[in-house]
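quick one: iron/sulfur cluster bound model?
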Amino acid sequence: MQLSRRQFMKATAGGIAASSVAALGFLPATALAEVRQFKLARAKEIRNTCPYCSVGCGLLMYSLGDGAKNAKAEIVHIEGDPDHPVSRGSLCPKGAGLLDFIHSPNRLKSPEVREAGSSEWKRISWHEAVSRIARHMKDDRDANIVVRNDQGVTVNRWVSTAMLTASASSNETGILTQKFMRSLGIVGTDAQARVCHGPTVSALASTFGRGAMTNTWVDISNADFILVMGGNPAEAHPVGFKWAIEAKKRGARIVVVDPRFNRSAAVADEYVPIRAGSDIVFLGGVINWLIANDKIQWEYVKAFTNASYIVDEGFGFEDGLFSGFDPAKGQYDRKSWNYEFDKAGNARTDPALQHPRCVWNLMKAHYARYTPDVVADLTGSPKDGFLTVCRYLGATSARDKVGTILYALGWTQHTVGAQNIRTMAMIQLLLGNIGMPGGGVNALRGHSNIQGLSDLGLLSTSLPGYLTLPNEKAHPTLADYLARTTPKAQQPGQLNFWSNTPKFFVSLMKWFWGDNATRDNDWGYDWIPKWDKMYDVLQVMDLMHNGKVNGLIVQGFNPLTSFPDARKTAACFSKLKYMVVIDPIATETASFWRNHGEINDVDTAAIKTEVFRLPSTCFAEEDGAIVNSARWLQWHYKGANPPGEAKTDQEIIAELFVALRDLYRRDGGTAPEPILNLSWPYRNPLEPTPEELAKELNGRALADIPDPKDPTKFLARKGEQLPGFALMQDDGSTLSACWIFAGCWTQAGNQMARRDNSDSGLGNTPGWAWAWPANRRIIYNRASCDPSGKPWDPKRTLIAWTGERWAGADVPDFKIDAAPSSGMNPFIMNPEGVGRLFATDKLVDGPFPEHYEPMESPLGTNPLHPKVVTSPAVRIFPADKARLGTHDQFPYVGTTYRLTEHFQFWTKSVALNAIAQPEQFVEIGETLAAEKGIRTGDTVKVSSRRGFIKAKAVVTKRVKALTVSGKTIHQVGIPLHWGWETVARKGYLSNTLPPAVGDCNTQTPEYKAFLVNVEKIVGA
Ligand code: SF4
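yep, here:
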């Protein structure tokens, strides 16, 4: 009898003695395997999820020790979970090294403080740490919170202490952190999403209605064509990328467009080079080509997009500027970027597409300038490579052909990040590829739970479920807030799902304030802080630079290595009074005050910041859920206790909150109401459990909810978990911390822990974990059918209209009983129900994407409109503007990226990954290397206006010189991962080089295109 190693483990896990197993003839074939079996035979198997990237691969962890006194559980082995429908047992080099992460010598084991001016860490007790931090926070809050603004509006805004939140912590940690921060009035808060995928939310929500990856990892295998642009998934999402390879095995074509011939390009059918920062020229050229060559899915475009909508007559575009630009403010007035409406409030349309101001004709005129010659001239891409991409994409305009796009930070990290993504979203609408299996816009999220943390609103101006944090001008009262954030349908008969906003918001307020939230006090509306401006990370750093921030709490984040212009960041940290770092491992942020020579040349004694370093658990030591890129909430389980005195983030946050609340109860203080009125109903107030928090995320009934169709029946009884968001009420009878997660923990139990991997069709596994919204796997899937309800492609039937209802392999993203004849359109989150080719007034920098040069342009001009070189809507602070370089001093284009062996700045603390990629390097093309006399292995200095790094040179054919606008442009590839808290070789912070300027809409920094110089260091 042949058994796999895993089957063998199952057979022995029940305690069958090895000898009995042998007697049954079950022993595995090889002696090597036999030894391994015995190692794991006494082990406990625990399910978990990889904490690195957003593929969310399944893990099996094995721990020894039964938990008895002196028999501490220890994780001894980790491998891929073969049942997992995405990873199917695979792990990439990062996942394969996870055991070394858990046992890293850089794990923190006890609370420590670095006193002002000191050069050492000092061990302290948890009690001392929590008491001192709470005292710092209360003193700062009492002195600086703004209770009312100049107009007398209650704002309860505390700006002088900021908080950064973790990207890999569970949803349960995230939501507790949200509660903690907002009760204190913190608005200067951001998660990793701000420096990664902020533009994705902005671009996709403004086009389709939701800001998330549309399809799933496995669904990529249903594509006929895959464009990889603005990302390198073979390297950054290796296990997810195997589904692109599956598609290729079925005959799909893969084309990679990238400044470097990267690892994705190595397995693609075609590779097309491009100048970093010129993607909108390329993609705008695709739009022009599709229109000129009639490669449009016409039925889809006419029925499901706003092509026929008539735009306000005040709208225009001339010489690089859209209508409404105010040069004094450096901002647009977006009034004219909207539809023309009739008296009933419905947008006017011209189904014949003849009206000169209908979206179709405006779009056609806008992109007519982006000819293939212009594309080749401005991007440096060869014209035939560009046309190849056009032809492949154009072929997917057929009803039975589908293409998809895989992108990541190569598109987001630009001043035009959101518009890069918008251009592709428009292309996919023109081709009819949204809602289709094998189609969509696949935004490949970077960190394991950055999707979840975005969902939970851990960003400056957000609340959970993509609700907006109230603004002091627009929303002084609850009535203003609800009136302005609840859209009205713009076409008759549309679902306009955001019309439910009051239900979601009041349920959220009930979660925040419990019984203290009543109709009479507007559900505690005034206790939520109101923002005056976006306190994104660049804004907060500028305030810190100007001495206006005293405290910074950093949870599972390493901003010194992650924020642009690292030298400025270190100088900003030096101005803080206190910093609190909660992390499982040592970070450069916590030790920013330590001198490491050229790598971190600071004056330790002069830095007066008190730094507290609090050890937290890692993924393997806690229960909870994280959300993968495809919106799946996957529950994981604790396998062992953390090292030393480390605690869960939930415990740390709860202890800090209770200590602060005790201080306010005892001593009073400024604006104590939000803290004293906060609902904190946890059985152990010092340690809310993941189960308690997950149930709150889902939501429950606070009173019996009658069935409107039959008053003798109830849809839910008081105290029951809600089955979904449809039951939420705006009268205070329901509570939910995050409406989009409603359904994740129902009366039937924890849906996120489900492990049925059976395929309902086209690779859908609806019984595995739980996906928001409502367990839908492919969003906008109504658009996979034609207007009459029949699938566009019978081979790709995901859902269909049965005559009575919508049904199929996925949960329909539509009103289940709305017949095709009802006139309801598929993009149910948009008030007009259609996908937007023209993004109305949703983005600050234009309703159509337009090419603008990076803030540091290698051309120094924009040949499309020389008077408007860079985006006019960019926000840049004077101190950062003064630190921009020019192409005469810094002639080369620098671009940063990840390596497959490393994850951000974590795996340099992991032995296996440090062995695989031990030393910092940069990639330089052969032509530039020859000009500079640089050979592989030489040490080079790469400098920008903001500082320099030194690294080994890798001279390569992978980065070719390009001809752009008659100039030779060299690009320099700069991997990210080094620093001084490491078990690899120490290295420089690569983010010393990029400028502190961000995407116009989200302020995600421009890491992918900036100017550098390169010099060989002689004698190094
Ligand atoms: S890093 Fe990503 S691809 Fe690699 S094992 Fe982890 S989740 Fe999977």
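The first strand starts at residue 44 and ends at 49.
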